[in-house]
Write a structure and sequence with these properties.
- The complex is a heterodimer of chains A (260) and B (540).
- With 260 residues, chain A is an alpha/beta fold.
- Chain A has twelve helices and six strands.
- In chain A, helix 2 packs antiparallel against helix 3, helix 2 packs across helix 5 and helix 4 packs antiparallel against helix 5.
- Helix content of chain B is 71%, strand content 5%.
- Chain B has 23 helices and six strands.
- In chain B, helix 5 crosses helix 8.
- The longest helix of chain B has 31 residues.
- The termini of chain B are far apart.
- Classes of the chains: A alpha/beta (260), B mainly alpha (540).
- At the A-B interface, helix 7, helix 10 and helix 12 of A face helix 12, helix 18, strand 5, strand 6 and helix 23 of B.
């Protein structure tokens, strides 16, 4: 592709870009509004189509190779692609101000969209729940006890088999990934607990919870991880070994080892 | 593209078989590569060697980057001193032994030096992967090994700098070239430090950074360092490794690990398959040399590490585990001999021998660095057996494992006037107990010989806080028909079931801790409810 070729066709580039940037959304908005959606939904949806596809490049490339079009067309397509992809990205990012502006300028009246608010997505979204990560013995024990206390619990594990049969909502995923943190609605949670025995995952999770201001309890499965957990200022460290030892003393007492 | 596609396809098959048969993936990937090479030979299709070597370099560069990311100095924690001692001593000793062996086997001059250093360092890629999969980073030996790897990689990087300088690519005179290369390496290490302290956190911990941007930023750091390496005529993996180290500090490495790991597996496949494909069929002499050196590395490293770790306070078992994990050649060894070959110090057939040696030792690691082998070796070690005679005991209480959590129990038992025998594999613990006049035996609580010596079958009660399933099973089997109550502190309920079937009484840590937590949680909820009510009443 040679940019020089496009220069000769600058007017075509401009007009085609404008057609895509304005014409595409225009057509979409008209169709979607007529299908009965609210004005805002129609606008937001239409704004997303204000560019040409990456397949267009492949398309014209094939056409060129087959000798059906001349190289200038490829250049024009590329320029239009660059302009529309870049511009539409910003249009999508700033879709709300754009919408407000269009409303103020009364540009959207012509579409005759219904004046309704469409259903907010994700009415099922979790709020005020307790997130428990790691369905090992500790995780499962925590889930059961929290449910008994009447809490809404979300159990997370990377192994779907460990989530089977749990009497609460479950999420299959690795909490090191941001998408999983978002899917767990961690920012709306009341509390977070990690039962994992993986130092790195626990530290990262504690860090993320602190960033989101969510109180967190972490499984301090070994003495060597305590320093890091202290530094991360977790709200509670689940000391399985320590509690186990306390129980050991109780068991010994029950056996009459301590008589005096 | 076709070559890449075939490589990835065979890698996919190798991964699939590895998951199905539950065997480590790396040996299968190498086999896939060898298979491809063989197929090409049989079908008389020429392999594009250039492409394959480029892909190998690419794979190696990224893998070394990903491995470098795991070498967070802070993670080494309390094992730092031990890591430095053991790391330098092991490197130096293996290098000397290697040089001697090389001369014995007929290598001459500079080639012997290459052999020496190639076998001295251990593989970061393989060991980090094993530690990650087995989740053993936090164990004392895991931390020690990380420290050793970091140190050895830094040493070998300096060595690579010297050697690539010695190649004198820009004809500035060997001494000048070496000085420049060393300064460039040190400068990059300094740059990595700058990144660790200031740049990486600024780059990757900003708010609202999505995964894509994080990955791109991490890869940008990689390319920056690799670019500097290229510009200063250093081997590219050196830059890649330091880029990884630049991103190794927490929380940066935690935040980018997930996206980088995905890419990492791709490059792992690429590297090991192409590595397998570059192994040319060795001559008898090369094969013999590779086997001889492999055996040397595998046989010498564990005892060496155990010897060196003696005075560092690490338990014998941890030392053996570390030694087994460190018994292989490094991926940097391959880089080393490639440089040697380019400067004419190493013969062509020897390069192939080195690749074979590295592959063989890397593969063996997954099979020998296991609990079973460790236990077997532990039996041979003299210091594991406590020669002190313990008098014949009866109705005593045995505590197996006496970590800080068990001190309360120990003190209560002593207060009550019981005869207590403590078994622990940590020499520091044993020494401190002995100094208090308590009968303490250093060793493995599952070892039947030891249990026999402390008259386990005649004890009043045995309490075990050992972590490993295998050890507790051995204990229970030993005292099974002796009517001795055995209390086992255990985390996992499935393991607890197995102990119960052998007659043990189990204390489930998970249940106990969950109860404590929920109590705390409920109190916290109550307090916040009261606070809210008070606030409402205040405003009303």
């Amino acid at each position: 592709m040679r940019m020089g070729d496009a220069q000769a066709y600058w007017l075509a580039c401009l007009l085609l870009s404008l057609f895509v940037l304005i014409g595409n959304p225009f057509i979409f908005m008209w169709i979607i509004a007529k299908s009965g959606y609210g004005e805002r939904t129609s606008f937001y949806t239409s704004v997303t189509v204000a560019q040409i596809s990456e397949f267009s490049f492949i398309f014209v490339g094939v056409g060129l190779a087959a000798g059906l079009i001349n190289p200038a067309i490829v250049s024009v397509t590329t320029v239009v692609g660059l302009i529309t992809i870049a511009t539409s990205a910003y249009m999508i990012l700033y879709n709300r101000p754009l919408y407000e502006a269009c409303r103020r300028l009364k540009l959207l009246r012509m579409f005759g969209a219904k004046d309704v608010e469409d259903d907010r997505p994700d009415s099922q979204q979790l709020r005020n729940h307790v997130v428990v990560v790691g369905m090992n013995a500790l995780g499962r024990a925590l889930v059961q006890r929290l449910l008994d206390q009447g809490e809404t619990v979300l159990a997370i594990d990377t192994d779907p088999r460990k989530l089977r049969g749990l009497p609460c909502r479950t999420l299959n995923g690795n909490i090191e990934y941001l998408e999983v943190i978002e899917a767990a609605s961690l920012e709306h949670a009341k509390f977070a607990v990690s039962a994992l025995q993986i130092e790195d995952s626990n530290n990262l999770f504690a860090y993320r919870c602190r960033e989101l201001n969510i109180p967190v309890a972490i499984h301090a499965f070994d003495r060597s991880v305590v320093d890091d957990l202290n530094r991360l200022k977790v709200d509670y460290q689940i000391d399985t070994k320590g509690q186990g030892s306390v129980q050991l003393v109780t068991a010994m007492t029950d056996r009459g080892v301590f008589n005096s | 593209m076709t070559a890449l596609m075939i490589i990835l396809l065979s890698a996919a098959v190798a991964f699939g078989i590895s998951t199905w048969l539950r065997v480590p993936a790396i040996p299968l990937l190498v086999l896939a590569g060898i298979g491809l090479n063989g197929l090409a030979y049989v079908a008389d299709v020429p392999l594009e060697r250039g492409t394959i070597e480029e892909m190998m370099q690419l794979g190696l560069t990224f893998l070394v980057f990903a491995a470098g990311m795991e070498l967070n100095p802070a993670r080494i924690g309390r094992q730092r001193k031990a890591a430095i001692t053991v790391g330098t001593a092991q490197f130096a000793t293996m290098a000397v032994i290697g040089a001697g062996l090389a001369l014995l086997l007929g290598f001459q001059g500079l080639e012997a030096v290459y052999v020496a250093f190639a076998i001295a360092a251990s593989s970061t890629i393989v060991v980090v992967r094993i530690l990650m999969q087995r989740r053993q980073f936090f164990e004392p030996f895991g931390r020690l090994v990380l420290g050793v790897l970091l140190l050895q990689d830094l040493l070998i990087i300096l060595l690579l700098a010297i050697l690539s300088g010695a190649e004198d690519p820009h004809e500035r005179g060997v001494a000048m070239s070496i000085a420049l290369a060393m300064s460039a390496t040190v400068a990059m290490m300094a740059l990595a430090y700058v990144f660790i302290r200031w740049v990486s956190p600024w780059l990757l911990l900003r708010e609202h950074l999505d995964q894509e941007t994080m990955l791109l930023s991490a890869v940008a750091v990689l390319f920056l360092f690799v670019g500097v390496a290229y510009w200063t005529s250093l081997p590219l993996p050196v830059g890649a490794f330091l880029a990884g180290v630049a991103l190794a500090a927490f929380p940066v490495n935690g935040v980018i690990r997930a996206p980088v790991m995905g890419l990492s597996n791709f490059f792992l496949a690429l590297f090991f398959v192409t590595l397998g494909a570059t192994i040319t069929f060795p001559g008898i002499r090369e094969l013999f040399l590779a086997i001889a050196l492999s055996v040397t590395i595998i046989a010498l490293t564990p005892p060496l590490v155990v010897l060196l770790a003696r005075r560092t306070g690490i338990s014998t078992r941890s030392a053996i585990e570390s030694g087994l994990l460190l018994a292989q050649c490094s991926e940097f060894s391959i880089v080393l001999v490639l440089i040697g070959s380019a400067s004419g110090h190493v013969r062509e057939e020897m390069v192939s021998m080195f690749v074979l040696l590295t592959v063989m030792t890397m593969i063996m690691t997954s099979f020998i660095a296991t609990d079973q082998v460790t236990l077997r070796l532990l039996r041979f070690h003299p210091s594991a057996r406590d020669e002190r005679m313990v008098k014949s005991l009866k109705n005593h209480i045995i505590l197996i494992g006496c970590g800080s959590n068990s001190r309360v129990l120990l003190d209560l038992l002593l207060l009550e006037g019981h005869d207590v025998v403590v078994v622990d594999e940590d020499p520091a613990v044993v020494d401190s107990l002995r100094s208090r006049g308590i009968t303490a035996v250093k060793g493995d609580g599952g070892d039947p010989a030891l249990l026999e010596k402390i008259c386990a079958r005649d004890a009043l009660v045995i309490a075990s806080t050992m972590r490993r399933l295998l050890d507790n099973l051995r204990l229970l089997r030993h005292v099974r028909h002796a009517d001795v109550p055995v209390l086992v502190r255990v985390f996992d309920d499935e393991e607890a079931e197995r102990f119960r079937r052998l007659g043990g009484e189990t204390i489930l840590e998970s249940e106990a801790a969950a109860d404590e937590f929920v109590k705390w949680f409920a109190e916290r909820q109550e307090r916040s409810r009261e606070q809210t009510t008070r606030q409402r009443e205040g405003t009303a």
